[in-house]
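Milestone M4 deliverable, item 7.
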Amino acid sequence: MKPVTNELMLALMGDMREAAGAEILPRFRAITADTIRAKTAADDIVTDADIAAERVLSQRLAERLPGITIVGEEVVSDDASILTRLADADLAAVIDPVDGTWHFAHGVPMFGSILAIVSGGETIAGLIHYPILGDFLVARRGEGAWHVAADGTKTRLSVAAPTPIDQIHGFIPLHMFEPDLQAKLAPRVLRFLRTTTWRCSAWEYRMLATGAMGFCLNESLKPWDHAAGVLIHAEAGGFAATMARETYRPTMTEGHLLAAPDEASWKAIRDALS
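Output delivered:
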């Protein structure tokens, strides 16, 4: 497994700031009909900012880490076979250039950029950048999870304290599950104090890692949504696994991922949803 140094983390943060400043922020609230396109559905969209920011980050990563495998959301959208390279890559970068594209395209400042560094099929570093705020959530395996403010101030992150089911807040994107599972889940979400969805993994993982929200049940396992966030959440003290009790790896493509404050909470939440 390749090491990720503090110097490399700082350099990657600089690259993400550069991509945001050059390609994302200038396009925010400046979206036009010819700079936005649908992908798999009317609400699954891509903008020029996604494509340009991914290109900049990919170039910087290739220069900084020669030979690294790049797995970007937008490149995979054009060529799904690229995703298969992640499992065998000695060192790979998983990029979501603009997570929360729907928000971004509609002028809502709830979006972020996500970067995970993967070695041997395991995430060893995760970075989430919030261009509007100028801050980051970052983690290296075994080194804790941190909020890095725009001025560089670092604060260690910690997930929410375990609470009874009827007192916990969580994210469940009910509309995204297949119809038969929606019907089963719908009455069960009433067992929690509150559930919602923000349509943005970058912000949902922020709420989990800072303790603002307790749990999240995810409908899909796209690596650009979860590879960085699961590591940050774990390093902040959280526990995550699929509903089948499989430990998450960024190479996974099937299953529903549940993240919770600890293993006991995870089991209680899973039981409530099952």
